[in-house]
Amino acid sequence: MRALNKLTNIQIKNFATGKYSDGGGLWLHKRPDGGGQWFLRVSIHGRRREMGLGRYDSKGEFGASLKEAREYAEKWRSIVRQGKDPIKERERQQREAAKADYTLETVAEEAFEARKAELRDDGKAGRWFTPLKLYVLPKLGQVPVEDIDQRDIRNTLAPIWHEKADTAQKALNRLRITLRYAAAMGLDVDIQATEKAKALLGKTRHVIQNIPSMPWQEVPTFYDSLDKGTITHLALRLLILTSLRSKPIRFCRLDEIEGDVWTVPADNMKALKGHETDFRVPLSNEALSVIERAKPLARDDYLFPSQRRGVISDATMSRMMKRRELEFRPHGFRSSFRTWCAEATDVTDQVAEAAMAHVTGSKVERAYRRTDFLEQRRVLMERWADHVTGKSGEFARMVR
User: What is the Cα–Cα distance from 59 to 206, expressed in whole angstroms?
Assistant: First the structure.
């Protein structure tokens, strides 16, 4: 048996440049600058392997002392006695340690950060991440992302797969994006795990329900009841008159309105997010009247500010309708308007869809269509205002 522990600290300190054996395959390579490097020579499966054990430091503060180097050497010699290549085993252990650092939660957060630019308000509302945060991460957040498989996903989403189907689908979608992001990072993940989990979960029994909308015949009575001149009442009136979603209403700025045209930035329009084209809204006389009433309440150029700072929240108008014990919600007035267009006017589908900022037709068709039907929409929205304010309940013919 080869002699062990042949070196002493004093010898090492006085060594010239060169390589010195401590026995058992442990060597020290002394450098000209006085520093040194430990390495271990072993034979495994008929091959000689040489692995570094770190730099030499007599105090063990910035490297391995003689005592520590001997401990490291014995650790890896024991691996050799087990018939394993010490270098490959160390690499395996390093991969395992790295894998533990990339949990599902850490990768999901990175994926969310990378995706923020594509989300409304840069994801500030938190809706993108919420399904993961509430239903997935509490169970799987600390699991290495490389270990996630379809059974893990199935077991996690099964409790809400039928009862909260929309949320479960969103969580599954976010997981799919997270796994693809992990694959792009070079991690060994199964990017098909979500599809496999979906197959295991089966078809959902949940029936998707549309947002309740007020019948268009009842809108005038409700509109008339919004008579207090508060920010909430005025915002709801403008929402009904323009048939827009709540975001452009809430973030309406006075400098966006010129004459009887309101130019809504594309970033505030769901269908136009990420596009360069803003959306022009023709304002009826009634809509202009609502804006004039709201101007004294404006703050920081926002027409509908909140009591504290910023603008009114997405839930402000909904809460008001809920307090009145109505089943309808603000977004439903878009359906009220669209049904009115279909049942009480002869407006074309193209103009009606354009009024709601819906993207219609193929890419080629849209490329050749160079109009937003502003003038036709101007007539349409004036007739809608007439209906809403109770001035006309007759069939509305549109001038072409």
Answer: 67
- Whether residue 247 sits in one domain with residue 318: yes
DSSP class of residue 179 equals H
Looking at the structure, tell me whether residues 183 and 58 fall in a common domain.
Answer: no
Q: For position 64, what pLDDT does the model report?
A: 86
Q: Is residue 323 part of a domain?
A: yes
Name the nearest CA neighbour of 330 among 339, 321, 338.
Answer: 321
Same domain, residue pair 55 and 120: no
Range of the domain at 25: 9-95
Map residue 315 onto helix, strand or coil. Answer: coil
Residue-wise pLDDT for 165-196, tens only, equals 889 999 999 999 999 999 998 888 999 999 99
Q: Give the residue from 357, 340, 386 showing the smallest Cα distance to 245.
A: 357
Structural domains in the chain (count): 3
Please state, in angstroms and rounded to a whole number, the distance separating the CA atoms of residues 68 and 26: 12
- Give residue 366's pLDDT: 46
DSSP 398: P
Residue 57 falls within a domain, yes or no?
A: yes
* Structure confidence at residue 33 (pLDDT): 82
Residue 255 has pLDDT above 80, yes or no: yes
CB atoms within 10 A of CB 200: 14
Which of 38, 70, 95 is where one domain is finished?
A: 95
Length of the chain, in residues: 400
Same domain? For 66 and 21 the reply is yes
Domain match, 50 and 115 both:
no
Question: Does some domain include residue 71?
Answer: yes
Selected residue with higher pLDDT from 269 and 303: 303
User: What is the C-alpha to C-alpha distance for residues 371 and 363, in angstroms, rounded to an integer?
Assistant: 15
Rounded to an integer, the average pLDDT of 75-100 is 84
Strands 47-55 and 36-44: antiparallel
Per-residue DSSP letter, 299: B
Does residue 344 share a domain with residue 231? yes
Q: By percentage, how much of the chain surpasses pLDDT 70? A: 87
Nearest-CA neighbor of 376 among 348, 340, 335, 339? 348
Return the structure tokens found at 285: 């006389």
User: Has residue 202 got a pLDDT over 50?
Assistant: yes
308: its two tokens: 């504290």
